[in-house]
Amino acid sequence: MIAKLKGLLDETGTDWAVIDVQGVGYLVHCSARTLSALGEKGEACTVYTDLQVSENDMRLLGFADASERDWFRLLTSVQGVGSKMALSVLSALGTGELREACGRGDVATVARAQGVGPKLAGRIVNELKDKAGALPGGGGGVTTVAPLAGSSSADAVSALENLGFKPGVAAQAVARAQTELGEDARESDLIRVALKKAAG
Hints:
The chain is an alpha+beta fold.
């Protein structure tokens, strides 16, 4: 699967961009926020990608950062939310806003996205609020998206849980470690730093 594209911005539309990677143009569908972050035509850019395959369609989705891609995957796991709807939500709300809205159960904020009615917004909030945990301390705490199964962060969380840490504590410690080490951190490094965070 294509996980990331690094090339030149060749062309853009209302909800898509073409990334030229060594002479091959990849059409990626993007949120408005990602499109604005890509820069000007001809400039170098990087997009994190997700490939969506259905009976009638195959499309590559592009994201300015890995956290937006993670939220896209979470959103499309909710019944009734397809790729277009998920991009609409991510166009209206930054990942931080979305995380906070789900954590607070704020349906009205999620319903600001074009095409998302109160009923669907409520479903999104209800299904994702447990995946947007927060450290004690309310709004001043660190919040995180639950790690995706099979990722280094998910494996690190599992390792901490096996050492006796509660799931919420383990997830928060790993999230803080990943913020410190970066998206591409190895599992062993995440565990080492997360143990310090959890113990502290």
